[in-house]
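ERR on first pass: missing label on line 2. Operator R.T. fixed the label and resubmitted. Corrected input:
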Amino acid sequence: MKFILGILKDEFEIVNPDLDANLTEAYEFDSIDAIALLEYVEEFINKPLTQEEKKRAMEIRTVNQICDFIESVLP
Amino acid sequence: MERRVVITAASAITPIGREREEILRNLLGGVSGIKRFTQQDDLLAPYLHSKVYGLVDYEIDYGFSRKYVKTLGPVSYYACQAAKEVIAQAGLSQDMLSSGRVGVAFGSTHGSPTVQRDIYEAFFDNERRGYAKINATDYLKSMVHTTAVNITRMFGITGRVIASCTACTTGSQSIGYGYEAVKYGLQDAMICGAADERDTTTVAVFDNLLACSTAFNDEPHRTPRPFDVERDGLVVGEGAGAVMLEDLEFARARGAAILAEVIGFACCNNGGDLILPNADGVIRTIKMALENACIRPEDVDFISAHATATKVGDVVEAQAISSEYGDRPVVVGFKSYIGHTMSACGAIETIFTLYLMQEGIVVPTLNLEEVDPRCGMINHSLKVKELPIAIASVHNFAFGGVNTVLLLKRWS
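pass 2 clean. output:
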């Protein structure tokens, strides 16, 4: 969670987000941001995401869902 | 339906400045924007014979938010800044911009070469991270229509998009095609222009063709020298130019200030050699533009020549001008001040022409000290002088054999 909040703040200018808010609707987090965020996730877990994992990530809408996703792809 | 098309705003980022007054001051003062090129890019710069460049070496406070910056390469920073300024100057509301009746005609030579180089690094990455090294937004920053669509994105513009990419005629085509879109009622307004960022690969191309200036590396301000006996080639430059074109009635209805009218445009191809200039092609383009504007050659008072200062190109253009206009209109080569800003040259030179037209003054072709006798048959501007310019013509020619002529009329 700390990692994600840090990335959201430093790279996407999203500070103290509502963890269950829809990022697109509440913070103008768009498709470009989503793809960029995945690159940070790959760096964090230190392995490339598979195509299937990336497709699954495209369904993510909230910070809590991002955290759940990261837990699911941790090696 | 044919409508009259007017210019209601203009903005440029050039090696001799950005603001209208600054640009005019430097044109009138004979200030060159050509500098010694000192950038070390670990790529081509050390190998180039030409060491001069038309540099935008001042800071620009863009003030773009993160939301937009993430898809901007250097070329789109220039483009969006110029677009931002013409939108503000023209006073178009957000409702108008998002009405579908306002479009964008904007281009660059080849998107962002700086970002493209970053992408190519993936091929030479020793850690073999492969495509992962390519950033998610690299394509959006580097693609050839990056300037046009970043403008639409930043300003919520929903009309048509025309992204010319015809090298040195990109800017003039953008204005010309924007003019046609408004003239024929397809759009009420068009933001038109072009931009190119600093790039050594462009210099290398012309360097290898022996078309770049090399004899004045230690005296950058003395080159390029359009039409001069000592000219030794072009000087690559960077920058951007944008104009707002509007339907006259649309502009009048909202009380917009009108700067000038675009009365004609022509574009054609030489239909053969992709590099060598072609007098027949240029003459044909001039004739088509005059016909398009329904005016005669003697109506044109001023010509902004393409005039890159290459050995052959200037002679061919002088021959074409002489053939169609004789020696009446005053001819100026603006590249002598700013270098060849590639895709942006047509837009920037249109704006310079507009400024001089508004002031009723002409400036000399810089560094034109001794006219090449082969270029001597036309009316070169050799000093600052007052001249009411009712109608001006802007010439641009590009690799690929593309020729454009724009015709502007003073607004009074």
